[in-house]
Amino acid sequence: MADMEDTGRSCAVSSRLAYFLVGAAFGAVFALLIAPSSGQETRDLLSSKANEGKDYVTARGRDMRQQAEQMVGKAKDLVNQQKEQLSAALEAGKQAYQNEKSKAQ
Predict the structure, then answer these.
(1) Which of 29, 41, 73, 76 has CB 3.0 to 4.6 Å from 37, enough for a Cys bridge?
(2) Contact, 31 vs 11, CB < 8 A?
């Protein structure tokens, strides 16, 4: 349960960081557009920054996918563990019932 809360907090922090970086990128683009540089220099700079942003988003998406896969794996393990415990308890209950039934006869 604590792992899920920690994951929720890390996702919230990741979201805030992503919003901050997107805002910073927009601010940088705006600053470049009003900066006194030649058109070609500005286009080259914007192109390189766009590629950097694309690479960052791709890497971040890959990281988030890996985290999601890990969480799904942990959830599956937990469900399997609970299922095994429930099956064992059910089997023990059946056995106890059979024992009591045979004692009563």
Answers:
(1) 41
(2) no
Q: How far is the C-alpha of 64 from the C-alpha of 93, rounded, in Å?
A: 43
Taking only the tens place, the pLDDT of each residue in 67-79 is 999 999 999 999 9
Which residues constitute the domain of residue 33? 2-104
* Region of residue 36 (phi > 0: left; psi between -120 and 50: alpha; otherwise: beta): beta
Is the CB of residue 46 less than 8 Å from the CB of residue 29?
Answer: yes
pLDDT digits (tens, 9 = 90+) for 32-55: 677 676 778 878 888 898 899 899
Q: Which amino acid is it at 85?
A: Q
Using DSSP's 3-state secondary structure scheme, residue 45 falls into: helix
